């Protein structure tokens, strides 16, 4: 038995509890890991509260991230004692996840813990930071350079947004942070934002085309926000889309794409190939100032995860939430 968050759904309803979990719940896999740290992401918040159709098997341990030490293994790449990181691959959705003291899974889903990071720092980055890096890599791949103009980051106070602001600023881009919490402006400027804009200017239905401003963008919000960002992106600019905090719809026009040659680049962190994950983590080790992580992080114990999930969905949590699974 070990401690964890367990989500169940039956005649009594949908519920998440902090409880003792039997090893049989872990399911199949060739690597068992003793978890040290996990995180609480937006998707985890949806899973724990039941406010989104994230969990597709029950009972389920949520948690799309974890870092820990290999406890037993038949995988050739990960002997006992190795420090490993997990992001995505459907854990916490269809396979028991990282918000517990133990996890069993396919070794092919793991990456080695980069030596540049402690275990806690790796989870301060987590899926959110790794997704932010995938967005930056996509901007670079499509030729967006620091001297091309301003880069907009929406949902900048969130986990993906905070890390994206920090990385882009360190790489020399002029970053404009969009937020609905003006009281967090100093925080965003400390991460490297050159300017702050109110998210309200993007969140309502807009025109098919607006005044050109952005050379590129990292959008974590979706819906009208993403549509308006595309409509105000400059000729041949690039918008990366990785989130749905406002909604899964895209009430947009084709005008930005056929009249301005705007590129909309979708970013998937869940099933991203291992080779791309390794590149992303290598670049995080090079391009993220780890001294900024403490600004972004709220630390909680595993027993606080359920309560914090609701606060996260309500927009009352800044940056990243790291979870000490052993308290």
CATH topology of the largest domain: Quinone Oxidoreductase, Chain A, domain 1
State the CATH architecture of the largest domain: Alpha-Beta Complex
- Rounded mean pLDDT score: 96
Q: Pairing-aware structural class of the strands and helices? A: alpha/beta
Please estimate the helix content. Answer: 25-40%
At the fourth level of CATH, the homologous superfamily of the largest domain is Medium-chain alcohol dehydrogenases, catalytic domain
Unreliable stretches (pLDDT < 50, length at least 5) are none
Number of strands: 15
Give the topology string: H per helix, E per strand. EEEHEEEEHEHEHEHEHEHEHHEHE
Question: What can you see in these coordinates?
Answer:
There is one protein chain. The protein contains 10 helices and 15 strands. The strands form 3 sheets. Strands 3, 4, 5, 6, 7, 14 and 15 form a 7-stranded mixed β-sheet that branches. Strands 10-9-8-11-12-13 form a 6-stranded parallel β-sheet, with helices on both faces. A two-stranded antiparallel sheet has the order 1-2. The protein folds into 2 domains: 2-113 and 291-324, Medium-chain alcohol dehydrogenases, catalytic domain (Quinone Oxidoreductase, Chain A, domain 1); 127-266, Rossmann fold, CATH 3.40.50. It is an alpha/beta fold and 327 residues long.
């Amino acid at each position: 038995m070990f401690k964890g968050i367990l989500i169940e759904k039956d005649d009594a309803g949908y519920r998440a509890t902090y409880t003792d979990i039997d090893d049989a719940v872990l399911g199949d896999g060739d690597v068992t890991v003793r978890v040290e740290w996990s995180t609480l992401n937006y998707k985890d918040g949806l899973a724990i509260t039941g406010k989104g159709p994230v969990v597709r098997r029950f009972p389920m341990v949520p948690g799309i991230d974890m870092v820990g030490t290999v406890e037993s293994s038949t995988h050739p790449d990960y002997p006992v004692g190795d420090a490993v990181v997990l992001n995505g691959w459907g854990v916490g959705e269809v396979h028991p996840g990282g918000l517990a003291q133990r996890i069993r899974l396919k070794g092919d889903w793991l990456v080695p813990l980069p030596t540049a990071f402690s275990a806690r720092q790796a989870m301060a980055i987590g899926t959110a930071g790794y997704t932010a890096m995938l967005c930056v890599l996509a901007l670079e791949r499509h030729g967006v350079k620091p001297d091309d103009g301003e880069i907009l980051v929406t949902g900048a106070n969130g986990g993906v947004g905070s890390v994206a602001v920090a990385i882009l600023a360190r790489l020399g881009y002029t970053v404009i942070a969009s937020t609905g919490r003006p009281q967090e402006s100093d925080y965003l400027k400390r991460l490297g934002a050159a300017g702050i804009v109110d998210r309200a200017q993007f969140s309502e239905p807009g025109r098919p085309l607006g005044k050109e401003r952005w050379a590129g963008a990292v959008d974590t919000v979706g819906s009208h926000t993403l549509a308006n960002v595309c409509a105000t992106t400059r000729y041949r600019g690039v918008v990366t889309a990785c989130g749905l905090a406002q909604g899964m719809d895209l009430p947009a026009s084709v005008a930005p794409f056929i009249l301005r040659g705007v590129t909309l680049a979708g970013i998937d962190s869940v099933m991203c190939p291992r080779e791309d994950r390794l590149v992303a983590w290598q670049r995080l080790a090079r391009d993220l100032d780890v001294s900024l992580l403490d600004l972004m992080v709220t630390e909680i114990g595993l027993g606080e995860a359920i309560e914090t999930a609701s606060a996260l969905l309500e927009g009352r949590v800044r940056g990243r939430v790291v979870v000490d699974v052993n308290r």
